[in-house]
Amino acid sequence: MWEPPAEHPLRRLFAGLAEHAFFSHLGVTDPPLIDYLSSLLSRFVHLDAVFRLRGEGGRPLTDLVGMVLEAEQLPAGGRTRREYYRHIGDFALFWTGVYPEALSRARPRHCKDHLVDYTVQGKRGYWITSQFDEENSSEEAGLFRRLSEQFEVCAVGLREVRREWEELRPNHPPGTGLIQ
Under a CB-based contact definition with an 8 Å cutoff, are residues 61 and 34 in contact? Predict the structure, then answer.
């Protein structure tokens, strides 16, 4: 999974915006959580990272239902299943937090995700990930548990990050976004 180095300008931009949004607007002072979220934003700049999970025949999984079904078919335990659930949490949080308006547009009645609650599935994905980490005595277990428990706060914080990055573009109407 590609991730820009900490000194990359885009990574620094997201880190600064996330720190400001979470500290100033939400009063969240959890540096590992905020670092994870700014890393998520940096990774998801590339669509191939957003849709990195593969299903049958190597085709990208583009809906949450497909991702969950694929994860459930993987052998219990193991890195691959953990990575699927982590990505499910990331995917759900990204769309819920950064582009919530896309969820209603992208989920017509005939779409598999039409009746899926992204918040519930995101929280579940992070919680399952934390269980894998806990089994291995990983320090990340607590981080993924907090992502699950504070999913809604993280989504609000990511909306604030988006609002702030949109304000960075002078002479552009609101909603056009910094990254297109």
Answer: no
The amino acid occupying position 127 is: W
Q: In order along the chain (180 residues), what is the average pLDDT of each group of 10 residues?
A: 75 94 94 95 92 89 91 85 95 96 67 80 96 74 96 97 86 54
Evaluate whether residue 173 is within a structural domain.
no
Contact 17, 161 (CB under 8 A): yes
Tokens 């990195």 correspond to 52
CB 39 within 8 Å of CB 11? yes
Full residue range of the structural domain in which residue 132 is found: 9-167
- The answer as to whether 1 is a domain residue is no
> Is the separation of the CB atoms in 149 and 102 below 8 Å?
no
**Structural domain contains residue 172:** no
Nearby residues of 54 by Cβ (< 8 Å), 6 or more positions away? 60, 61
Contacts of 9-13 with CB under 8 Å at 24 or more apart are 10/42, 10/45, 11/38, 11/39, 11/42, 13/165
Of residues 73, 75, 74, 71, the one with CA closest to residue 126: 71
Asked if 154 and 37 touch (Cβ cutoff 8 Å), the reply is: yes
In 3-state terms, what secondary structure has residue 60?
strand
Give a yes or no: residue 174 inside a domain.
Answer: no
